[in-house]
Write a structure and sequence with these properties.
Strand content of chain A: 5-15%
GO molecular function (chains A, B): DNA-binding transcription factor activity; transcription cis-regulatory region binding
Largest sheet of chain A: 6 strands, parallel
Order of helices and strands of chain A: HHHHEHEHEEEHEHEHEHEHEHEE
CATH class of the largest domain in chain A: Alpha Beta
Strand order of the largest sheet of chain A: 2-1-3-4-5-11
Oligomer: homodimer
Keywords (chains A, B): DNA-binding, Transcription, Transcription regulation
Structural class of chain A: alpha/beta
Number of strands of chain A: 12
Radius of gyration of chain A: 25 Å
Number of helices of chain A: 12
Domain HTH lacI-type (chains A, B): 3-57
Largest interface: A-B, 52 and 50 residues
Protein name (chains A, B): Transcriptional regulator, LacI family
Number of domains of chain A: 3
């Protein structure tokens, strides 16, 4: 028979409610009663839940992770690295989904359930500068992602302009010159929003090799970069008669949808059209063809965010808020391997050699 | 300027702490002060967080969803249906991951953080009958998944034996007779554990058409059914020289890993080997070839679990705990479409026609 709260209450000579209050630490209990309860808990070898461990520290041992959605494997993979990193320091992570909605993100950044969570890691999609209400609640917050929000929180990002430049330049280097860019969002005007940074990198690479950009090659999508977005963007592009020899999708899910759309139109990847993604989700490694992509160091993203947040929670980190950039690398796989370095279109690089 | 707690405190003539206590509802505040604070909140159009709405009802408006892991899209998709269903009733869902570990699942089912969550939906992988400690904490719990645990909680399941029978029978009907089964777990002895139910359905279908089972065709895997499990199971099977013309994987992720392994060995799907999965994750619809699978009604799973849980939380559901079976259907896609109905191997069905 496991020890119950009642056993503990009888031993300590207090009410069950008091035992519960001591264990859960949300309500004031006198020191004297608290000591009696804690002694009884120990004598009876009661298995406390996680909260109890954090009683004395005034912490619940739980951090929140607010992501736009669970269906995008990129967020699931980053969440997993956060859960593992937090777990190593005995913190539990509860995942909240914002739906990428500004109102929900605003709630998180302005102090979401401070009595339930010691701190929050937030990956915003729609948040704007003015959404920050300074000083309302003091819950520590760490931001993930690429927006250039000027907020008083630590921020773990990757350099989207540089990453998109590298993806596009890789295609140019292989000889492609009609490169479509899939994923520009027009619902958020902010010029530091992720898709605009990625477009900037794409345009810089074109410019570098002297190709002028063609508006027809740039397609817009909704906030959620899912397989269907990529699929339908490609169908629209081809229905409009746009000539394309390579496609840079702003994430892997759209790239996988794009590849399926190309197959359904009788086109081969990479023989007819090369495709490159962004995120390096596991699915792209097993897909056929496997997907060339930009791989942010997700493990380091999760570990850094957790280190920063726990440092703020436990008071060991007292430097001013920082923005750090996590490295990424390009991983070449089958979806762009149809052409050898250079080939017939090497000429686009001639000024660059 | 947004309204701050300080504004509210000044207007109500109380301390900021008291305002916070009213909003967060965890600490007792006198009725008189509470009314003054609530009036001030209203006058100043303060945007309360969700907790406030549930103050009077003694609920926090948050339910927990404990799943084994985020990396398996099946759990992510079911979680999404839970989040949508709960959201329609103004409940927030926080997702906790158990890692499929019995100790973590035991904590959840025995009442996990009752002061933080109004109830919990748990999808267990390793829980055993004796893990239930009756009556320790009264948090409502709904179980998801297929285990036949005899516990005093509502339970939303699918009929795994019937579903696996249907998957296997589909392959038999198409003329395949060397059908591998991928995914038997040997780490949990319990005969009602999911993989053993699926194996039972597989064996029943073989028996029905008079094919004796071949132990060589049944491969074991770890608890997590990921792409790598499917990939390596197929490599092992072929390394052992086992002759196979079709593969039934106990989930889609393993099936997608299996397809990639077959390609890497120079085999075509479905021309050389047919593959069928289980779960109907979105990835299988866009994969090449697209994946034939068993599709449980995930939307109904999420909605039913939420209905049951909120019914218990709000006291509107007072029938004894029930187990309900959610329907599933077989969805035929490219990965099994290589052969016409019957064909040369129709003979396996002759006793059954």
């Amino acid at each position: 028979m496991p020890t119950t709260l009642k056993d503990v209450a009888l031993r300590a000579g207090v009410s069950i409610k008091t035992v519960s209050n001591v264990i859960h630490g949300q309500v004031y209990v006198t020191d004297e009663k608290r000591e009696r309860v804690e002694e009884a808990l120990k004598e009876l070898n009661y298995q406390p839940n996680l909260s109890a461990r954090y009683l004395r520290k005034g912490r619940v041992g739980v951090i929140g992770l607010a992501i736009p959605e669970l269906l995008n494997p990129y967020f699931a993979e980053v969440s997993n690295t956060v859960i593992l990193a937090a777990g190593r320091q005995a913190y539990t992570v509860l995942v909240d989904t914002t739906g990428g909605e500004r109102a929900n993100e605003r709630i998180v950044i302005n102090g979401w359930r401070p009595q339930l969570l010691d701190g929050v890691i937030l990956s915003p999609l729609a948040l704007e500068q003015e959404d920050l209400q300074p000083g309302l609640v003091e819950t520590p917050v760490v931001l993930l992602g690429e927006r250039f929000l000027d907020v008083p929180h630590d921020h773990v990002a990757i350099d989207n302009v540089a990453a998109a430049y590298e993806a596009t330049y890789h295609l140019l280097r292989l000889g492609y010159r009609r490169i479509a860019a899939i994923g520009l969002r027009i619902d958020v005007p902010d010029e530091t929003e992720t898709s605009k940074l990625r477009l900037r990198g794409y345009l810089q690479a074109l410019q570098e090799v002297g190709i002028s950009s063609d508006k027809q090659l740039i397609t817009t999508t909704e906030a959620f970069y899912d397989r269907e977005s990529g699929y339908s963007a490609i169908r629209r592009l081809f229905a409009d008669g746009v000539v394309v020899d390579a496609i840079f999708c702003f994430n892997d899910l759209m790239a996988l949808g794009a590849i399926r759309a190309l197959y359904d139109m009788g086109l081969r990847v990479p023989e007819d059209v090369a495709v490159i993604g962004f995120d390096d989700i596991e699915e792209g490694r097993y897909a056929f063809p496997s997907l060339t992509t930009i791989s942010p160091d997700k493990k380091l993203i999760g570990e850094t965010a957790v280190d920063f947040l726990l440092g703020r929670i436990e008071g060991t980190r007292d430097v001013p808020p920082e923005r750090v950039y996590i490295p990424f690398r390009l991983i070449e796989r089958e979806s762009t391997m149809g052409r050898a370095w250079g080939g017939e279109r090497r000429d686009v690089l001639k000024d660059h050699a």
